[in-house]
Amino acid sequence: MSWSHALKQTAQAGLTIERIRLEPLVAVRGACGVAIVVGLTLWFGSPTLAVSSAFGAFSAGIAIFQKSWRPRPELALAAASLLAVSTFLGYLAAAHIATFVVMLAVWTLLTGMSWAVGPVSGLVSTQMVAVMLVTVTLPTSVLGALEHAALIGVGGVVQAALIVLFPVRPWGVQRDALADALAGVADYARRLRHDPQAPFDPQPLMDARSAAAVTPRAAKRRPSQLRGYRLLAERIRPVLASMADPVVGAPMLGPERDRVRELLAATATVLDAVAHAVRRSRPVRLPPEAMAVLEVPESGPMLNGAARRAALKLMALVNDVVESSDERVEAVTSEGTKDRRHLPRPTVPGLVPVALRALRREARWDSRILRHAVRLTVVAVGGYLLGAVLPFGHGYWAPLTSVMVLRPDFGQTFSRGVARFFGTLAGVLIGGLVVTLAHPDPYVSATLAVVCAAFMFMLLRTGFIVASLCVSAYVVFLLGIAGAEVGQTVQARVALTLLGGLMAMASYVVFPAWETPLLRDRLADWLTAGGRYAIAVFDAHARPAERRPRQVREALLDQRAARSEYEQLEGRARREPVRHRGLGPRAAQAAQTALSTAGRVTMLLEAHLPDRDAAPSPEAGEFAAALRTAVPKAVEAVRERRPLDWTAVQESLEHWQERAGERQGVAVRSAELLVEALDDLAEALAGGARQQRALQDPTRGGDPTH
């Protein structure tokens, strides 16, 4: 992607307002929280106290809009508490510039490392540093600093109280995640009607699983509609693929294919009805026409073999969906019920060891998180020192802009970062002109700040250029309440904002953290997880009586997570202006297709797992043993850029085919497809190695500018 095209796409996305992503009631509630805090503090206290308390309510409001599955009051309180602590420490250190620089360096380093915990932690921590740079410029004493910190915490308490008193769609994010997963499987069923090998995006199912993890206390209040459907959707998906596949399911042409298309359409209709009911918190209304299709017909086209078994299993699963839909939406688990059937989510104190493990895992020099933390620290400290030396006054605008622009990866920094920079610049310019020309009094400035906060909350999930404009204007109007910027011209603020943005961009050029060289390692991780998944499924066919209930499921989740991590990395690497250094774009795409096919083949076989009393299959056990030996060697070869060798796996398959003769079942055919996918992977990586050699020596052919 060229620079001009990337920036054009960023500008269009930043200025486009998607109405479906707007949450006006939540935005109004957040703005009301800011208005209440600012109004009361301005009426009973002082303008500087009003500014501090408003920043607390504002930061808490931003936190509740982040994509997190935790209750919104907890996010609001956590954001305000962190801001209160950082502001108090900043006030204590602000008296001496050397002390404050050390404190700023430590705080920004921890902020950068917080991205290891998750994007929500990273974004909220970044907001803490940005706001701290502003609030510590307000004059006060040590006791006054404590008062400022307390009022910042009060701002978070007010936002949390409003969420509790005026709930908007309780469990709404969990409902949306589950509904998206059900709708994704329904869409998959419809696409299978026309393309039996249609790809499936597992991300909605992964999000639904993350949303389903709750604490024991939250599990007691979770609506019954949010339990059960996700697991049914997970089980329906492989059955749909198996029934539609022309190799292990129904033939591509004929009456059996017509029957499969009818079943797929009916299943999609039922899942869509359930998704709509879950999203709207309403009882499920199932169309009788679709339910009639999902019954064993007395006459007409009939399915045979593996397709018939898959169809019967599908009917049983859809029947489970129907039985689950009989529960009323309002039914919840009573306080006295000991319901342990939920995915465990750690409590807030339980997050401490999780965060420490994440920080320890990223504390290595080749980690993009650590490099981001170092980059952020140097830019913030350098911007603060430059702002203090320059004769503009209020030099915090430079580090504030840098902190808001920088992100851990190149794509976000140089695409959305540029957009945030221009939005910040426009907000500073517009807000500064209004304050300079109109000279509003504190109450008018407070009103303008609340209006900007309302628009920012409204546009936080869409139109991020306009949202950045509103954030900057909010800061300008809020500081205008206390008269903190009377002596600073609009030109000075714009110049410092330009300086901060240029420093952020230059820091990534000077000290990059390219992710392109990591593609092979992530591909090897995906191959490892995919191999374990395939081994688990073939082991289940080899020894049905010894199969553990969670064996295949855990392997599938690991494979899905490894695939998601690779695809995210590949998407970020695609936007980096560096050579591939080991795995070119074509080879990466071909390898991704091969591993996706291998995962799909394993999923098809998972739909036909035998019962515990079924006869064991020694040939499946031999094939699994061959995979268990070959996969680690192949993983090592991927990392070291050597050719992959699947000879042992192919020999095991040939032996299985000879023993099976003409009566080759689903397991044998799935093994054939899996070996073909592994061969495609070997060929893709061999082509990437040849391309790399050509890049190093252009006389041997190839495109050196690839």
Helix content: over 70%
**What value does the Rg take, in angstroms?**
29 Å
- As an assembly, this protein is single chain
Whole-Å distance between the termini? 12 Å
Task: Specify the structural class.
Answer: mainly alpha
Secondary structure tally, helices: 27
Average of per-residue pLDDT values = 83
Shape verdict: elongated
In percent, how much strand structure appears in the residues? under 5%
Give me the count of strands: 2
Extract low-pLDDT stretches. Answer: 328-340, 689-706
Order of helices and strands: HHHHHHHHHEHHHHHEHHHHHHHHHHHHH
Number of domains: 3
Strand order within the widest beta sheet: 1-2
Major sheet size, sense and barrel closure: 2 strands, parallel
Membrane topology: Multi-pass membrane protein
InterPro entries: IVT-Associated (IPR052430), Memb_transporter_dom (IPR049453)
Keywords: Membrane, Transmembrane, Transmembrane helix
Subcellular location: Membrane
Describe what this molecule looks like in 3D.
InterPro entries: IVT-Associated (IPR052430), Memb_transporter_dom (IPR049453). This is Integral membrane bound transporter domain-containing protein. It is found in: Membrane. Residues 687-706 are annotated as: Disordered. This protein is mainly alpha-helical and 706 residues long. The protein has 3 domains: 3-169 and 363-510, no CATH class; 172-222 and 224-330, Up-down Bundle (Four Helix Bundle (Hemerythrin (Met), subunit A)), CATH 1.20.120; 516-700. It is 72% helix and 1% strand. It has 27 helices and 2 strands. The radius of gyration is 29 Å and the shape is elongated. 48% of the residues are buried.
